[in-house]
Structures are given as structure tokens and as C-alpha cells.
Amino acid sequence: MNVYLDLVFFLNFFLDSVLLFTVDIVLKRNVKKKRIIFGGLIGSSSTLFLFLSLNSLELFLFKFFVSVAMVLVCFSYHSLKELITNVLYLYFVSILLGGFFYYLNIEFSYSVVQNLFVSNHFRIPLFLILFIAPLILFFYIKQSSYRKRRDSNLYRIELVQGKKRYQYVGYLDTGNQLYDPYTKRPVHLLYDPTYKLSKKQKIIYVPYHGLQTSGIIPCVYFDFLIINQKQRVEKVLVGLSREPFHIDGVSMILHGDEILDHS
Predict the structure, then answer these.
(1) What is the pTM for the complete model shown?
(2) pLDDT in tens, 147-199
(3) Which helix (H) or strand (E) holds 134?
(4) 107 or 248, which is more confident?
(5) CA 166 → CA 35, 70, 235, distances in Å?
(6) Cα-Cα-Cα-Cα dihedral of 36, 39, 41, 45, to 10°?
(7) Cβ(156)–Cβ(229) under 8 Å?
(8) Sign of CA pseudo-dihedral 112, 95, 135, 37
(9) Among 148, 143, 44, 57, which residue's Cα sits nearest to residue 93?
(10) Burial of 257 (C-beta count, 10 Å sphere; 0-12/13-18/19+)
(11) At what angle do helices 56-75 and 5-27 cross, to 10 degrees?
């Protein structure tokens, strides 16, 4: 079998650089691009494996030390904790990328013939690896950034009404500017199709105006609201939404005037 050393070196350098670039963005290390390139060059030194006779343990240790060297060259050393974090994230995105390519290879390298899986010797072309790898990691970066922003605005909420307690996941939306026009109380929004109004509850109808819609939303008072099992807000006004919120796992849209003052 012919091995093109320059091609193997370039592929390793490209993938290692992309992995380091991903770690840099996700962890917000803000290193210079030339350090990422130098780290990629260190990683591409793994082509030496082709000329070394190593057992499984030696190969693992060699790869590990190369990974640590990549991280040190790219991100420098500031603390042991930061070094471990950098190395772990490098391995995580490597597993993510490698696992995806392994899936593609398995998916397309076998055909079903009379209920049997038969290899067709398919291998992912080099140009496809070079094209897909950045796309996969770009998607991971975008999702990671979105999750961090989203999770920073999530709160565990407990609404108490008499002897009844209701637990929800709330999302702090600074765009929620809904107030009761008479009492000037901020209005939180709740979507819970299982919540039933009792005959004794007083309903307050609050008008709202959106970009392309307007109307009136029924609201009720709860005795108090507990934020993350710590802070407590007395006498909160909650609007009952008929439509679910398009945020995964969220049942409440919280008003910043009451949440930020108590968080």
C-alpha cells in the first residue's frame, strides 16, 4: 500500500488546527491565529507513528503527550485547571468529529444484500473530509454558544397559590414589557394546559401589543413566586398563555423587573 506522507501530514495539520480553533472559540481563549497554526504543526507530528513500532499503550501515551504539547503551544500554561480543561475539550471535539466520520463511513461502506450487511469498501474522500469537518465543528460552536446564552437565562420557578405549588422552568426575556396598566405590576407569562382556574380566583384581563398582534390576556395573582429555591417574590401577576413558548423545556416567560431585582 502506498502512503503519501505529505498528504497525511497536511490532513493531520488541517484537522488539528480546526480542532484547536474550535476549542479557542468555545472556551473564549482569544489566542492569536499563528499559535493555532503552531499547535496544528505539533499535532501533525503524529505522522511519525507511521515509522515507529509501538504497542497500544505506547501509542496511547505518545498521542496523549502530543495532545498536551499542542495545547501548551496553542494556549500556553496559566494553571493546571485551565490546562486540563483545554485538553479535555480538545479530546471532546476530536471524539465528536471522529465519531461523525465513523458514522458516515459505516453508513455508506455497507450495503444490505438479502438481509445481510456486505462491505462495498467505501472510504470517505479527502475533499469531503476537508469540507465537512469545519461545517460539523461550526455547527457545534453555534449550538454551544446558543446553549450558554439560553442556560444563563433559565430559572427554576415555583408558584404558590394557597396550598398548591406548581413548578416550572422559566426563561428571563428582557423583551417582556407587559404590565397591568392599572396596578403597574409586571406580568409573567405561563403556558400550562393542565392548570385549572378555580371559581374563587379573580381574573384580570391585561391588554398586550406585539409587533404584528394585539389582544387581551387573562391574568391571575399567585401568593408568591420562588426563584431557584432561594429568592421569594410576593403577590406576582401571571398571564395565562394559550400558545406554548418556542423554547425547549420552558413553561414561563419571566419579567425582568421582578426577577433581576431578586436574583
Answers:
(1) 0.61
(2) 777 777 888 999 998 888 999 999 988 777 889 888 889 999 999 988 888 77
(3) helix 126-151
(4) 248
(5) 52, 50, 15
(6) -160
(7) yes
(8) negative
(9) 143
(10) middle
(11) 50
